[in-house]
Each structure stands twice: as structure tokens, then as C-alpha cells.
Predict the structure.
Amino acid sequence: MMKILVTGGLGFIGSHTCVELLNANYEVVIIDNLSNSSIDVLEKLEEITSKRPKFYEIDACNKEKVSVVFKENKIDAVIHFAGYKAVGESVSEPLKYYRNNLDSTLTLLEVMKEYSCHNFVFSSSATVYGTPKELPIKEDFPLSTTNPYGTTKLMIERILQDVSKADKDLSIIVLRYFNPIGAHPSGLIGENPNGIPNNLMPYIVRVADKELPTLSVFGNDYNTHDGTGVRDYIHVVDLAKGHLKALEKVVNFKGIEYYNLGTGKGYSVLDLVNTFEKVNNVKVPYKIVDRRPGDIDACYADPTKAYEKLGFKAEYGIEDMCRDSYNYILKNKESQK
Ligand SMILES: NC(=O)c1ccc[n+]([C@@H]2O[C@H](COP(=O)([O-])OP(=O)(O)OC[C@H]3O[C@@H](n4cnc5c(N)ncnc54)[C@H](O)[C@@H]3O)[C@@H](O)[C@H]2O)c1
């Protein structure tokens, strides 16, 4: 069976992808430096799958240490999740973002070449579409960015394009994620950021749980059905499964390909709040505040290419996403008592 190196494998999307890989009998080797995750996730992966992946607590930017991983394991493909992802922090600390996100990618590509590993799947983001000219968003739309985080993703996409041109043995798939939320239905792994959350769902969950008093909704005068911003939310388990589809494809072609991973459906902030209240039978008090600079009216994927070429289709709905996000937090609290 193929051996997959998963960088950032203890993080939110990486951990869910490891579950799907292990369940599909791939051999999994994880690199994570725990900068935004906890070692406990490793136990949870074992609890869910009854298998324990090999784990290295190392920095993906450290070439010497990454080389050891390749020396000790015959890696067939790399899925590269490791990186920083907070948009606001990337504005105040751009160098930290350029250093970590670019350096980890360059290091992996160099070591892969040394060890003749040719298959690479990269976590990009819908943020590379900037302000889209129309909706839904297709993969061949023009690219631009509005913050340093997004620029790291776009720069890496350009690097991958160049590397792919120069090395005809390489197979690269760039996955552009829309908005992953939800958690594993077991409630054992999920998203629980430290401090005040930046993203909508983790914030809603904290308000529902009375850890935060009210949700601030940034603007209700956008050009959408209820005036609040519309996004394409995708259940993290669906997103994880998209990586298995990408792996099946990446070993069967040479070159570089780009895919949106989204549902193709847009939901507004208030749609999400209302659904969350309904399925979880809780209140999420909110107030409307000013728009946030840089936010766009609406953003959702055209998921056709991933469906036609990878056979990928998201299956979970918005109710499942709301239920599983809350279930994870409730279960997590129980286990801390
Ligand atoms: N969550 C989203 O909304 C979203 C959307 C689009 C793209 N992405 C991208 O997907 C990837 C995974 O996102 P996530 O939500 O799971 O984030 P996350 O922060 O939960 O996971 C990233 C993991 O990488 C680890 N890490 C960071 N730098 C590292 C390094 N140098 N060496 C080793 N480990 C390192 C962290 O400890 C963490 O476990 C990221 O590249 C992110 O930019 C995420």
C-alpha cells in the first residue's frame, strides 16, 4: 500500500484526512511541529481508526530532519497541509507567514527530489481568486490576493507551476479549499482554536456555549439575499475525502492540475446562524456591526471540474456541519471535566 507523508497532519484538515487515509488502508507518516495543534490528536486518530500513524514532531522547514523522514520511510506521495493560516495575523506578521509557508514547501520539494518522490498534493485556498469577477468560481479565473496569507498561497502555486515545468517526472495537484467547517461525527477531532476565533463557525460555537456573549456580524448591506456575506461551507470530512480522490489522480498523470473543493452552494452568515440554532436547539445572539475591510459579498465554487475529473462530490449538508461542529465542542468539554 502507498505510504503517504502528511505534513500538518495533527491540524484541523490534516487530522480528518489522516482518518480517511488510515480507513482506506494507506500507510500514514505525519510531520507536525505542534505550533497549532496538540499531540492528543494522535491518540484520537488511533481511537477512531484503531491504527497508529507514524509521527515525527519536527518542523517541515528543517531540511535535515525532513530528510531523515524520507530516509526512514519510502514515501510515495506528500500531502502538504503544514502552514500558518490566520489572515489577520499575516497582515501584522507577514515575514512569519512568508517564511513558514514558503520555506516548508521549498524544503519538501527539495527533499522529494533527492529521494525520487514525485507526487505532491498542496493545500491552497479560494482566497487566491481575490474578488471574483463572477460566480460560481471556476479554476481558470484570474488570480489575485488581498492579504499576505493569500499571497503565500499564490506564490506557492507559482513556484509549483515552475517546478512542474522544469521536472517532467513531477505530478502536482493544487486543491483550492472553500470554507471547511464541521468535525468528525465521533466528536473526537475538530477545530478548537486558541483565543478569540477568527472564523465564523468557531465563533458561533463559542457564543452558543456562552463563552462569548454575542456574535458580531460584519455588515448586512452586501449584495446577497439577506445582506450578510455568502460563503461556500464544506464539511471537513468531505474535504478530507477530496484528498483521497486527489491521491488516486496524482499517481496517474504528470504535470500540475488545480481543483476547487467546495459544495457549490452559498450560505449567508444568517443562514448559518439560523441553521445552527435550529439543529442544536440553542440560541446564538448576534449584532450587526460595520463591514470588515477586504470582505467580499459572496464566494462559492463551481465544483464541476473536481466532480468530472476526480469523481469528488461533497455529501454532507449545512445541517450536518452545524451539528458536528457543536458536537465536537460539547464532547471536548465533557472529556475535560
Ligand atoms: N481551515 C481553512 O479554512 C483553510 C482554508 C483554505 C486553506 N487552508 C490551508 O489548509 C492547510 C491546513 O489548514 P488547517 O485548517 O488544518 O490548519 P491547522 O493550523 O489546524 O493545521 C496546520 C498544522 O500544521 C502544523 N504546522 C504549521 N507549520 C508547521 C511547520 N513548519 N512544520 C510542521 N508542522 C507545521 C500546525 O501545528 C498544525 O497542526 C493550511 O495550509 C491552510 O492554509 C485552510
Summary: The first strand starts at residue 3 and ends at 7. The longest helix spans residues 94-114.
